[in-house]
Write a structure and sequence with these properties.
Immunoglobulin-like, six-stranded mixed β-sheet, mainly beta, 18 strands, five-stranded antiparallel β-sheet
Length: 242
């Protein structure tokens, strides 16, 4: 059981960033690709559209989304329930997955979930048995905190670990930070393009660590200017000392 859960976790986490950027397969279109529920909002929907001429079958699961020790973690949850959990979308048709919060009411700190939508083959297709996952989509769901609009508060650290350049981002705010396009500039004015699109998320009151896509010889010692998009807003930050 633990081995199967670990295998699932690896496959899920490998897809988080790409699926968050967009959820358009060959025939299945999903919208929205991110859900933000207001503090008093207890339900929302994800729309599935089959653009093909054959039915699409899928399964829907909800996970609590956490970050521990700088890494992503997912765990099954009943706090947010998806209905229906099994879908069959006829050719050129639509279906809505309804998400309902089991524990209604406002929250002081943002709660985070991932809805996994697996497009699967029918059991009798081509002599197969069991669940054959064709495509997997991961939709982030955020339940926003009550009161005034939330805010992300970020601390950036660039450091070496085992010879590799790493980025540690700590978020002491009460909402998540979606990190997009990012460029680092050193004291000599040399630029290092880290990401041109979605880079990842740092959840509220959590910390995330990434290996930077630069060579080991990259000159990233000392103060750095960090030009980055956070929650679709451009800002310039500086790194702090680890």
């Amino acid at each position: 059981m633990k081995a199967r859960a670990a295998s699932l976790m690896k496959s899920v986490l490998a897809l988080l960033a790409c699926c968050a950027a967009g959820a358009n397969g060959a025939n299945l279109q999903i919208s929205p690709v991110t859900l933000n529920l207001r503090a008093a909002q207890n339900a929302a929907g994800i729309n599935l559209q089959n653009l093909g001429d054959q039915p699409i079958y899928g399964q829907v699961r909800v996970f609590a989304w956490e970050q521990r020790d700088g890494e992503e973690t997912l765990a099954p949850t009943q706090e947010l329930v998806a209905s229906p959990p099994i879908v069959e979308i006829a050719a050129n048709s639509r279906q809505t997955i309804r998400l309902v919060r089991a524990q209604a009411g406002p929250v002081a700190q943002e709660k985070t979930y991932r809805v996994l939508i697996d497009e699967v083959s029918r059991e009798d297709e081509a002599g197969r048995s069991g669940v054959d996952i064709r495509l997997r989509y991961s939709v982030p769901v955020f339940v926003l905190p009550a009161g005034a609009p939330g805010k992300e508060i970020l601390d950036w650290q660039v450091f070496r670990e085992r010879g590799e350049w790493m980025l540690r981002v700590k978020n002491s705010g009460n909402i998540h930070a979606q990190i997009g396009a990012m460029t680092l500039t050193n004291q000599a004015g040399k630029e290092f393009v880290i990401s041109k699109g979605l880079f990842g998320y740092v959840l509220a009151a959590r910390m995330r660590v990434w290996r930077l896509p630069v060579v080991r010889e990259a000159e990233l010692d000392g103060p750095l200017s960090i030009a980055v998009n956070v929650n679709a807003k451009a800002l310039v930050a500086t790194n702090s000392t680890p």
